[in-house]
């Protein structure tokens, strides 16, 4: 059975704000567009407004101001609010949300109830869809007799069976263990793309976001702080928050020594110089003290040699503090100048704790930011191993 259904709508979110009765401003002037068939991931920490935004798109919540349009037609805003059942969408929830009194096949067939087809046709399509998600043999079981991963597959089949124009995913993998997450993530990606639907997927997991997205929107305290391709987000984060939330080895304080053009600075850090992309800096507004934020993938590790006292630009010396086996190689924690640490520094060989090393930093993965938040740490908020292998040559 081919999955491609009707036409997938483009999606426009325009200046959308939402506050709750508590007075809490959950979304503040959020604006982005998705093309027909695009897979958008909204990434942000807990409380950043992800669920609120996806619920507004679904029509489960009403917005305060702004507009949501599918294919240029307003579904919410300006006094209009189309109910969820009139939006040609399906949603996959974190907690599966299956009907406990219905068998798997009945849960899936239920999504076809509004279409003009007989019960046997609905059942046939539901069985086909369960087969597509690998659950043909579980069709007659009730949700309570299925594992979490199986229940989420039923929920995925239910979302896909009516071939909706828009698919919404509310952290669908967060209740599953690591191995299952990875397998189901791949299935979600391939089935959604085969279906041709426009998709909006929310998560706080950056590796999931990078693996799935055509576009990633990063939410921070109700604001969409960056909306771009995964490659652009990784190589050109616009704020320290975005850089930190998408995986850093660490941050080193320094001061600007010179500019190269308008986009690159040379920062003096201890006894070395680091060439870095000028994050939020403006060469016309001097900002002497900055932090260099360093991607894990930007750091290449080699054992120190006797002539290493001559430091080239973007080379640091350090000491291995910790080493962890990661299958394909090893992640190291390296202490560099003034006790600052870089974590998740990948190398094919184990370098023992206490050994002296040389770090070469690719300028493409180094970002100089002024005005970084107070209380800046050298430990990234997120240091995801799976991103350590991302190439820095995507810019
Ligand atoms: N029903 C509600 N009533 C009052 N405040 C709410 C309600 N729902 C969410 N909020 C608040 O709005 C803000 C955004 O919440 P939201 O659930 O959208 O964030 P989130 O990024 O999805 O977080 P999480 O990942 O923890 O679900 C939070 O500060 C939250 O406390």
From TrEMBL:
SUPFAM superfamilies: MOP-like, P-loop containing nucleoside triphosphate hydrolases. Keywords: ATP-binding, Cell membrane, Hydrolase, Ion transport, Iron, Iron transport, Membrane, Nucleotide-binding, Transport. Gene3D superfamilies: P-loop containing nucleotide triphosphate hydrolases (3.40.50.300). Residues 11-246 form the ABC transporter domain. GO terms for cellular component: ATP-binding cassette (ABC) transporter complex. It comes from the Bacteria. InterPro entries: AAA+_ATPase, ABC_SmlMolc_Importer, ABC_transporter-like_ATP-bd, ABC_transporter-like_CS, ABC_transpr_FbpC, Mo/tungstate-bd_C_term_dom, P-loop_NTPase, Transp-assoc_OB_typ2. Pfam families: ABC_tran, TOBE_2. SMART domains: AAA. Its EC number is 7.6.2.9. One of its GO terms (molecular function) is ATP hydrolysis activity. The keyword Transferase does not apply. This is ABC-type quaternary amine transporter. It comes from Ferrimicrobium acidiphilum DSM 19497.
């Amino acid at each position: 059975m081919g999955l491609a259904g009707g036409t997938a709508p483009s999606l426009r979110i325009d200046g959308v704000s939402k506050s709750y009765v508590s007075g809490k401003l959950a979304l503040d002037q959020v604006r982005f567009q998705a093309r027909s068939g695009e897979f958008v991931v909204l990434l942000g920490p807990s409380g950043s407004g992800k669920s609120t935004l996806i619920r507004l798109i679904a029509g489960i919540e009403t917005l305060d101001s702004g507009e949501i349009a599918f294919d240029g037609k307003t579904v919410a805003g300006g006094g209009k609010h189309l109910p969820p059942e009139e939006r040609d969408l399906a949603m996959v929830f974190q907690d599966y949300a299956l009907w406990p009194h219905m068998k798997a096949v009945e849960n899936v067939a239920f999504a076809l109830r509004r279409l003009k087809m007989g019960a046997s046709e609905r059942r046939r399509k539901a069985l086909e869809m369960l087969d597509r998600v690998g659950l043909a043999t579980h069709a007659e079981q009730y949700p309570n007799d299925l594992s979490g991963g199986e229940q989420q597959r039923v929920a995925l089949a239910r979302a896909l069976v009516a071939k909706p124009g828009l698919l919404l995913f509310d952290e669908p993998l967060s209740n599953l263990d690591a191995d299952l997450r990875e397998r189901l993530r791949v299935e979600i990606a391939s089935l959604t793309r085969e279906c041709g639907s426009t998709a909006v997927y929310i998560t706080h997991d950056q590796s999931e976001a990078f693996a799935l997205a055509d576009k990633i929107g990063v939410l921070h305290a109700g604001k969409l702080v960056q909306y771009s391709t995964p490659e652009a987000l990784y190589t050109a984060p616009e704020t320290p928050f975005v850089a930190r939330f998408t995986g850093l080895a660490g941050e080193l304080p320094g001061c600007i020594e010179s500019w190269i053009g308008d986009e690159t600075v040379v920062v003096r850090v201890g006894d070395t110089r680091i060439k870095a992309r000028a994050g939020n800096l403006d060469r016309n507004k001097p900002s002497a003290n900055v932090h260099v934020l360093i991607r894990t993938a930007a750091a290449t590790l080699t054992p120190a040699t006797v002539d290493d006292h001559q430091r080239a630009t973007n080379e640091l010396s350090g000491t291995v503090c910790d080493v962890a086996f990661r299958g394909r190689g090893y992640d190291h924690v390296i202490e560099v100048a003034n006790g600052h640490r870089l974590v998740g520094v990948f190398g094919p060989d184990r370098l023992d704790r206490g050994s002296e090393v040389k770090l070469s930093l690719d300028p493409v993965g180094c970002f100089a930011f002024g005005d970084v938040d107070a209380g800046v740490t050298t430990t990234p908020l997120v240091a995801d191993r799976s991103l350590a292998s991302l190439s820095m040559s995507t810019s």
